[in-house]
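Re: weekly structure request thread

Next one in the queue (764 aa):
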Amino acid sequence: MSTGNPYRSAGRPVSGSHFIERPELTERIEAVWQDPGRPSNLSLLGHRGTGRTSLIEHAMGKANRDDLGIIRLATGRYDTGMDVFRSMIHQAVMRFAPLAGLDGPCREALAAHDWYDLDHAARTFFQKVNELDFSLLYVLDDFDRAARVMTRLAEFQLLLDLAADNDFSVGLVTVSRRPVGEIEIDAVTGSVLEGVMGTPRHIGMFTPEQTDQMLAWAKDQDLASVRQEIMARSGPHPHLLRMLCEQVVEVQQATGRLDVDEAYAKVATSFQAHFAKLAQSIDLDWPSGGLDALRALAAGSGSIVLTPELNRLINMGVVTQDSDGLRLFAPEFASYIQTTVGSATSAARTAPPAPAPPAVKGDHRCVVLAVATEWKSKHGGLSTFNRQLCKALAAEGAKVFCMVLDATPDEVADAAAVNVTLCWSEPVPGAEGVSSLFRRPDLEGLTPDLVIGHGRITGPAAFVQAEDHFPDARRLHFVHMAPDEIEWHKLGEERKDDAAETVETRMRIETKLGRTSYRAVAVGPRLHGRVRGYLTDNDDPDPLRFDPGFDLEDARKRRHPNGSPLKILLVGRTEDSDLKGVGLAAEAAGKVAEWRHAAGRLPIELVVRGIPADKAAEQYDQLCKWANNSRLNIVPRLYTSDTERLADDLKQAALVVMPSKAEGFGLVGLEAIIAGTPVLVSDQSGLGELLAELFRDRPDKIADLVVPVAKENKVDVEVWARAMDGVLRYVKPAFTKAEELRRELAAQNTWSASAAALLKDLEL
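Done, posted below.
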């Protein structure tokens, strides 16, 4: 029986107790904003997988200044330097409440069509930010690719002015492999920015002590006893070490053996791909002799000339220097260089054979085809998820096409505004419905690198697109629900006899679509565990996990409702009342209404959004029976996909409840958190599990937010009634806590970060 794997989800940023402190680097990053006023500037040099993201996020998490906003941008995901500056401005206004009044200058910058206009608009905007006594710190990730994106010396000059001129209150942190000056020279044959960035700080490999800390995570396994075998494969490389440790623990839990060879066999392809990327980047950064130096080091040559480039590799830990001389960071990497790179003169030949070709080569822009039924959310949360996913992938630099059944001009414009292209085909005559999704779409002459399908709704169509029309594409199958868990609750009493067959059929569909995909992608931690349980054959691809983001749509501080009665909101199709806990919510609200009446407090009402029009009267009567209290006003509202009406529901509510008996994720609860409305979510939901995971080291932060559902009605009603009453007794503190929570989550968990992590997992 598995007791959990502390290394699971290797490749994602590390936080909490599993973050391995690098005090000198952390202190240097923190020093950027510790002093009052504008932040300073810093250049960080490090190779991919050395913990750059975790280190920066850990350090940024310690920033507690109300007058400072921190924004991370992946430089290489933009097409032009103008796009970079537009994003810098737009994200600042959208994310930080003190800047909400600068939407006019923001619109001017977004509308600029030439560099002169944008330069003027940007300077005006950042001057006004300074006048508000607010500072901005921009972390420019992937800055090596600024050489391709930023093609004007004036663009680097604007960065210089923002980071150094007293008219502005902006700081810059660049994250790259090469020094800023080299990147500038490649881009515009001159360097202006390097002088204000200071001495670069190198992010290298783990020290022996830090390596021991990671090995000690597995308290139930003695990984120290196989330390030498692990280090021979991964060396002190943070990402590779964690990936291998994860598999060593998996093998031990399955077989009882600490078998590093068997564990490495499971990740060998990923190691080889990472080695190829590393060799390629060294060849690009050091074209006059990078690969020759790697080959000489792999062969154990003692006649290596110390060049500036080689010194940089030493500082980054790719090359180790000690009393025995110079060598590569891991024997396995040395073996790869000897056997795969050979005598090649270009790293373009270093990639090993793989089941599928890499989706991105050189500067090729990743092309994505997402198969959906609609753009706007007329039919529920899956469409909302797909829309946000498409937007996030586009924001990360992908060229995104979304295939739908049909689209209005407004929808086409709405998608285009976030750099997503909608496409659709005519349905097959006599086979209307989703048949058009099986036809080859017009993708402007492009071929997708990724094809995305969602569950059994569009997963089959995505299967056909990848198999029949785009055989070189990688298909991702997103899993949004676990049939084994929820279908029994969704089926009415009259259909319970058919439930076993229905559940198994739907589970087999999900399993087959996941098994035949390049990777299955589970939404949130709860479904990730389920999908890992489905895909257990030796040849099954290990599923990925995707966590939805908490991005704020309105950065202004939330105002709590002052009217009477106080509204409790439940959103969900009432046809699924057993699954969604509608009866539980109504009965608990009935109790709360009685308690409040006895105590002389303001009355409450229960608003249920999700009533079908043809059963409104019937379901209203049922809600009243469940509540069993005439003092509770019940407001049944029809199911709607109108985002404005749903937003109004959230703004008018004093409390949102999501007492689901089983919920794959729970987008309603996520939307409540983003809106700043107090919310109670079931511990039987993916969202509940995610919150518990994010605040594992601070459980008090969510102690009143994630509420248990024992699936025993009397117990659950009492527990939920007490939780609801606790929020409604202290409305103002509840809204203050909700505001703090949404800002913390929005800063740390974004759609863009999840999209970037997905692309990283796929080596794109």
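The first strand starts at residue 42 and ends at 46. The chain has four domains: 21-203, 208-349, 367-546, 566-748.
Next request, please.
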